[in-house]
Amino acid sequence: MSEKHTEWLKQANYDMDTADAMFSSGRYFYSVFMCHLSIEKSLKGLYSKELLKFRPKPIISFIF
């Protein structure tokens, strides 16, 4: 479980590269969306690294 954060950060970097490609091709809406995903995955990686546990849940689970 301790290496889970590296996977989140790899995915965040990949999403950021995708955002750059989308931005370069003029697909600004999708570029912003990919930036959002990258930030979310980076925060999940930081959370799982610093607290040594993996519990990020979708927001819908907090509602019900």
Would you write up a description of this structure?
- The chain is an all-alpha fold.
- It has one domain (4-63).
- It contains 3 helices and no strands.
- Helix 1 packs antiparallel against helix 2 (28-50).
- The longest helix has 23 residues, at 28-50.
- The chain is elongated, with a radius of gyration of 14 Å.
Which radius of gyration do the C-alpha atoms yield? 14 Å
The arrangement of helices and strands along the chain is HHH
Distance from N terminus to C terminus (CA atoms, Å) equals 27 Å
Global mean pLDDT: 84
How many separate helices?
3
Flag low-confidence runs. none
Largest sheet: none
How much strand?
A: under 5%
The helix-and-strand class reads mainly alpha
Compute the number of strand runs. 0
Question: What form results from the Cα inertia axes?
Answer: elongated
Which percent bin holds the helix content?
over 70%
Number of structural units classed as domains:
1
Describe this protein with a few key phrases.
64 residues, 3 helices, 0% strand
Write the layout of secondary structure elements.
Blueprint: H1 4-24, H2 28-50, H3 60-63
Helix pairs in contact: 1-2
Short synopsis of the structure:
The protein is mainly alpha-helical and 64 residues long.
